[in-house]
Automatic annotation (TrEMBL), chains A, B:
Taxon lineage: Eukaryota, Metazoa, Chordata, Craniata, Vertebrata
Bias (Basic and acidic residues): 129-138
Record-linked InterPro entries: AH/BAR_dom_sf, PX_dom, PX_dom_sf, SH3-like_dom_sf, SH3_domain, SNX18_PX, Snx9_fam, Sorting_nexin_WASP-bd-dom
Protein name, as recorded: Sorting nexin
Ranges where the PX domain occurs: 226-336
GO biological process: cleavage furrow formation; endocytosis; endosomal transport; mitotic cell cycle; plasma membrane tubulation; protein transport
Compartment list: Cytoplasmic vesicle membrane
Residues in SH3 domain copies: 1-61
Topology in the lipid bilayer: Peripheral membrane protein
Sequence similarity: Belongs to the sorting nexin family.
Chain's gene name: snx18a
Alphabetical keyword list: Cell cycle, Cell division, Cytoplasmic vesicle, Endocytosis, Membrane, Mitosis, Protein transport, SH3 domain, Transport
């Protein structure tokens, strides 16, 4: 079972149970299954322990190593971007270091493939059911060879995120297929659906309605709205204490039953959702981090990120109601059997990708596709500009927090110290009329030192929450190029089919079908955009209010401290 | 009449009417009389105009140039420090740049000799009476040759600040004279007085009483207390507009008559007071400044300095009542004749230096000189420590102001700008539910920009006044080494005389006289120290209160601005 691997980078052990390795060092692995991104093995000095999977390359003859696949955002499926042809913009082009408060080394990030249940890298032995999942032929990639004509076989992992529903339909289209088999339009199932290749049985419970609202198409509201709290992140251990993880207590309001979930569960769920919903912006879960995962700041930041994520999940009319999310929220943490059943069911879900569009019901009146195009273009420009400004606000707030913690604190504390120093001089005069002033100046010194500390504590109260919000929206903004790409792909097919009809190469009926299906995709896309705007206005309003309230409290606290100091002079 | 001079430094003309010169350049002067520190002449390129007197050395055969005599503090008479022998500490050793907000080039400072009416450098022709003053034999220095046995003749100017009363007394002492003829003890007249060499007719009106107060010896309170406002600094011109000066309106409360005074009048008065009162800490007038004298900031700063100075003058029981100050406050600015009479009277005042001590009347019970010595030592340590801390507070506040004006402003404005940038992105969505948020975010951006401006304006309100106070006290603290030196000199004479009596070299009666006169000096010194402490407690109390009140208003202003911004979200 022992495998050999080569270290790609230096890694210095930071915690008990970890081993250090040098670049190019050969490591013996006990398993190629990583455990939350960690591999167990021994280094050339015979030390045994854990090391980050992303730091090593497993040595084998048929290697297509997917370990060193980095992304700035957590949980973007490998197949989520066009690998061969960047036809749409990836908006966020700023270096990660300028936009995240605690930038992680790129090597320490993302190395798993949420879209790939078969790889099961992130599942550990407590419910490692990868062997049974591997029995499913559709999962190992063999079933999709027909899609891989122009892609290297090494991409088999990523292409497993292609629509499973698509393969079940017979191709009857005469409209040409996209040459780029790795475009989002293709991978999301958008193309297959538009070309009429998707088919499946849609249960009533699976129906997703787009309705015409005051501002245009919108998702039908969730008739049973709920929220879910995330509390008490607690450290748990396994492997005789060698490895630890954090467990979160989730309590949805509609069941009031607490369930315990780990980050990897969120991660798994996220992968399911991305696979299932081609034109829905699934909120990103907080980023992975290899080191310092048990530090208080990190745990607190991740919890805040998960709370925001949960908030976006429960307030999304489609995501909140979907089976896999409900399974995640309601399945007892102790009932392993039920969990596994639900997990397998979700992984076998047929109404994903192309078939997802089958579940959408729209208003009877079709959209004006020209109007749709202009609205989509407008939204594309909006997201581009918002992404730029979010990056800028993020960088500014990050710097603002840093300045408050360092420079501002220092200045106020220096003022405090110099008043204290003055007081020390004045203390040398102990005449009765001096004593009151001496005490008042001493207190003033302390007040300024306290104000210095206020500046250190403040960013946690206002800047951090605002930056958490920005991080979530940065995730959404990276989703939209793909969503827009799917809609635009569908629109292109409509235009092509019209041309074919004009040229007599296609039946009008077939073109009508394409237009109808493009209409469905457009309704869904516009509903999602509407949801995005409404959520954005709601979130930014409440967070700006929170930010300002906290800033006001902060300055009031300073004022209060200074007023206390001023009062001391009354008796001086 | 034309004289030649050599430039000591490069000087670049900054204002109309000035001429530039290079180091070593030969200049033709039209007069060696400077006008408020400026000489009129022409440079080697034939340009005619003004240049700073301190930048040139007048070329003549008998030169002992006193022009290049610099001091960090304005108005410290050249003779105010021991030139040959630094027997007492000069407390303020920090470089000027670290303790003044607007450090002047040392070359541009002080080049006149307030203790020297004969030089009359600072008097211009509108009442230039130097020829008549020069008629007085005591002024030109010749009368003091007996004091100059061990000093170079070049010091004649500075030694003219020696007690005029002293020369009128016959030396009858057997206690040895100090070898150092330039020690403050000698120059102030302290030695002459202790040795019984001072004599003069003390009018009742000149009597100065030290009384025993709650906390020890103190000056008898001024029975007619008054204050004096300084308003409306206005620019006046002369020399056909080539030279300008600032005139201040002074209104004392006891006369309610406004008089106009220029800086040079303050300067002249200051010199008289320093000469007259050996153990009184005469507040320093604000520093001279060669360039930028008509800039608003400078005028405002000088006026604030003069107000503080006036406040210390009027609240000092001895200084407030003295004739020369009353003349300065009450003589009509338009009645040149009265002014000149008063001016001459002050310059001829005999009750200065040694004779000043003759005017002091003390309580009957003599002081315990051992106790006095310990109190003086305690005060010496106090002033040393206070001086250190004042330098430190000054440097800190200066830096604090600088940071607020630059760094803090920048951070808040950057936050404001980034919110505005976010608003620009959000403006691209004009749906009705977005408009309120957009406006609110735009306003928030403006609010943060305004807060940035608040930080720029704030130091004027709080830091500057506190620094003005510190500057005044720095002046007092440089006075005290001399005052302490006089008292210690007297005490040493007592000890010497006791020894002489024990050795049979001196009559007991003579020693008693020395002890009695030392008692007078000690009463006066302790009264002055008491006054210093009481004034210090009063001033620092009120200024710390003012500082804190301003800081509170500042943070309340910020809070108010943020509350305005927060309200905008109510309708969003």
């Amino acid at each position: 079972m022992a495998l050999r691997a080569r270290a790609l980078y230096d890694f210095n052990s930071e915690n008990p149970g970890e081993i250090s390795v040098k670049e190019h060092e050969i490591i013996t692995l006990y398993s190629e299954q990583d455990i939350e991104g960690w591999l167990e093995g021994s280094n050339s000095r015979g030390e045994r322990g854990l090391l980050p999977a992303s730091y090593v390359e497993i040595l084998r003859t048929d290697t297509f190593s997917s370990f060193n696949n980095n992304s700035r955002y957590a949980n973007i499926p490998t197949g989520g971007f066009d690998l061969k042809n960047q036809t749409h913009e990836s908006y966020s082009t700023a270096p990660a270091s300028s936009i995240t408060a605690y930038p992680a080394l790129p090597q320490q990030q993302q190395h798993h493939h949420p879209g790939t249940p078969a790889s099961d890298d992130d599942w550990d032995d407590d419910w490692d059911d990868h062997s049974s999942v591997a029995d499913e032929p559709r999962v190992v990639g063999g079933g999709y060879r027909n899609y891989e004509g122009n892609g290297p076989s090494g991409y088999s992992i990523s292409t497993s995120s292609m629509p499973r529903g698509a393969q079940q339909a017979k191709s009857s289209a005469t409209v040409s297929r996209n040459l780029n088999r790795f475009s989002t339009f293709v991978k999301s199932g958008g193309e297959a659906f538009v070309l009429g290749e998707a088919s499946g049985f849609v249960k009533d419970g699976d129906k997703i309605c787009v309705v015409m609202g005051q501002y245009g198409p919108e998702w039908q509201e969730n008739p049973y709205p709920f929220t879910c709290t995330i509390d008490d992140p607690t450290k748990q251990t396994k492997f005789k204490g060698m490895k630890s993880y954090i467990s979160y207590k989730l309590t949805p309001t509609h069941t009031q039953n607490q369930v315990n979930r780990r980050y990897k569960h969120f991660d798994w769920l996220y992968a399911r959702l991305v696979e299932k919903f081609p034109v829905i912006s699934v909120p990103h879960i907080p980023e992975k981090q290899a080191t310092g995962r048990f530090e208080e700041d990190f745990i607190s930041k991740r919890r805040r990120g998960l709370i925001w994520w949960m908030n976006h999940m429960t307030s999304h009319p489609v995501l909140a109601r979907c089976d896999v999310f409900q399974h995640f929220l309601t399945c007892s943490s102790t009932d392993e059997k039920s969990w596994k059943q639900g997990k397998r069911k979700a992984e076998k879900d047929e109404m994903v990708g192309a078939n997802f569009f089958l579940t959408i019901s729209t208003p009877a009146a079709p959209l004006d596709l020209q109007d749709v195009e202009s609205r989509i273009d407008g939204f594309k420009a909006f997201t581009k500009k918002m992404d730029d400004s979010v990056i800028q606000v993020n960088a500014t707030l990050n710097e603002f927090a840093r300045k408050q913690i360092a420079g501002f604190k220092k200045e106020y504390q220096k003022v405090g110290l110099s008043f204290k120093y003055l007081n020390q001089a004045f203390e040398m005069d102990q005449q009765s009329y001096s004593v009151g002033l001496n005490q008042a100046i001493a207190y003033t010194g302390e007040a300024y030192e306290a104000i210095g500390d206020f500046f250190v504590e403040q960013p946690k109260q206002d800047v951090d929450p605002l930056m958490d919000l920005l991080a979530l929206y940065q995730g959404h903004l990276t989703n939209y190029p793909d969503i827009i790409h799917v809609q635009k792909g569908a629109l292109t097919k409509v235009k092509e089919s019209q041309k074919h009809v004009e040229e007599g190469k296609m039946e009008g009926q077939q073109a009508d079908g394409i237009r109808e299906r493009c209409n469905i995709i457009s309704f869904a896309t516009l509903a999602e955009i509407q949801h995005f705007h409404q959520t954005r206005v709601r979130d930014f309003k409440s967070q700006m209010q929170h930010y300002l309230q906290q800033q006001i409290s902060f300055f009031q606290k300073i004022t209060g401290k200074l007023e206390e100091a001023l009062q001391k002079y009354d008796d001086a």
